[in-house]
Amino acid sequence: MTSTLDVSAARSVAFDLLRSVLARHKTFENAMAIHDGFRRLPARDKGFARLIVATTLRRLGQIDGLLDICIEKPLPKAGDAVRDILRLGTAQMLFLGVAPHASVNSAVTLVESRKLTKFKGLTNAVLRRISRDGGEMLAEFPDICNICGWMLAGWIEAFGEQTAARIATASLAEPPLDISVKENPEGWAEKLGARVLPTGTLRRRFEGPLEGMSGFSDGAWWVQDAAAALPAKLLGDVQDRTVVELCAAPGGKTAQLILAKARLTAVDRSETRLGRLKRNLSRLGLSTNLVTADATKWGPPAPVDAILLDPPCTSTGTIRRHPDILHSKSWAELTKLTALQDRLLAAAVEMLKPGGRLVYCVCSLQPEEGEHRIAKFVESGVPVDLDPIRADEIGGIVDAITTQGELRTLPHHLGDKGGLDGFFAARLIRT
């Protein structure tokens, strides 16, 4: 990353976005969507602002560790904003390769413009020390310092310390752009400058607005992480079979099931989210039966052949794409979500015919939302059997199949090809 652009506006917007996430608890996506200044930035500056904030959020544990060493006295409450400016400057120097003088000078200018002039000297001194000694000090703060305690504890329990450390490192990377196509993946890979992954997903670097890419306006493809595209495939051949998708928005899996010629009903409790799903399908030239309902209380007119359940979760498998998750989720929220997941599982199995398939999936790395939920459900005496998933169903990714025959993708899987989001899926048969 060079500092040849005039990015003073981008840095100012980046500060506003970081404050929105950390101080006002907005999601990063929402903060960008509602910030007029961000929307008005040229595409290149917009990308730079987004990258600064995303990097700061990903590396916040390490950054704060360095700042705690370099700031001798605790900052007053009014200094919270200054700390965010220091965080952004540190991220630029240590993780984005921005020249130290550009990072320091822009931070001092930002302090002045935000009427925090009394912190000008501190800002200059702290960032100059980090520019001089930060690389050496960073060795004291491994990547796992960026992961909050309850989240990391779950990873260590499920995968061990070494794998948890690999997950932490892989979760810090900028993700690639993954694309699902309606047809002809090889042809679209050539048009889009992408590669075809073993799972069938197309992958390329993310470069600029999607709207300008070939095939987007024609509805030839949609954005969907390679791991997120796997659960729908685990239902097998669904042509002319009755299928219910629960918690369906935003619609990537819905599109897969429509294209697989399922007789599909897509259910979501949120009218807003279902409206987004409908718009996404409309761009693709697809449609299906959509129902706004609470899936724990709703049921189909008759038992169905298959169900795909993708319940609300902590989404810790998508930290690469949504680094604010590191700071917005909590153990208390996890506890509430697991209770909801149990209720949705119980409701889903009641909708199935004997012999019907239920695929449960979450974009979470927490075992409490994946392995633990399915183990508890199967052991509760519900009339279901676990139906083992095979590696040949997911492009031969042997490492992603657990000893129980469940799917567990980790961010470092397919690491030489850009990694995967963290996902869990299990397949159950109604007995």
Describe the protein's architecture and organization.
It is a single chain. Residues 1-7 have low confidence and may be disordered. The chain is globular. It has 17 helices and twelve strands. The chain has helices at residues 8-22, 28-34, 36-40, 43-58, 60-70, 80-95, 100-113, 120-137, 149-159, 161-170, 185-192, 230-233, 252-259, 271-283, 325-328, 331-350, 371-379; strands spanning 177-181, 195-196, 202-204, 221-223, 242-246, 263-268, 289-292, 304-309, 352-362, 384-386, 407-409, 423-430. Helices cover 44% and strands 14% of the residues. Helix 6 runs antiparallel to helix 7 and helix 9 crosses helix 10. The protein has three domains: 8-141, NusB-like (N-utilizing Substance Protein B Homolog, Chain A), CATH 1.10.940; 177-223, Alpha-Beta Plaits; 230-430, Vaccinia Virus protein VP39 (Rossmann fold). Strands 5, 6, 7, 8, 9, 10, 11 and 12 form an eight-stranded mixed sheet that branches. With 431 residues, it is α/β, with parallel strands linked by helices. The longest helix has 20 residues, at 331-350.
Poorly predicted tracts of residues: 1-7
Largest sheet: 8 strands, mixed
Mean pLDDT: 96
Task: Report the radius of gyration as a whole number of Å.
Answer: 23 Å
Q: Mind telling me the CATH class of the largest domain? A: Alpha Beta
Question: What structural class results from the helix and strand content?
Answer: alpha/beta
**CATH superfamily grouping of the largest domain:** Vaccinia Virus protein VP39
Overall number of strands: 12
Number of spatially distinct domains: 3
CATH topology of the largest domain: Rossmann fold
- N- to C-terminal separation? 57 Å
Number of helices: 17
Quick one: overall form? Answer: globular
User: What CATH architecture label of the largest domain applies?
Assistant: 3-Layer(aba) Sandwich
Question: What's the order of the H and E elements?
Answer: HHHHHHHHHHEHEEEHEHEHEEHHEHEEE
Strand content: 5-15%
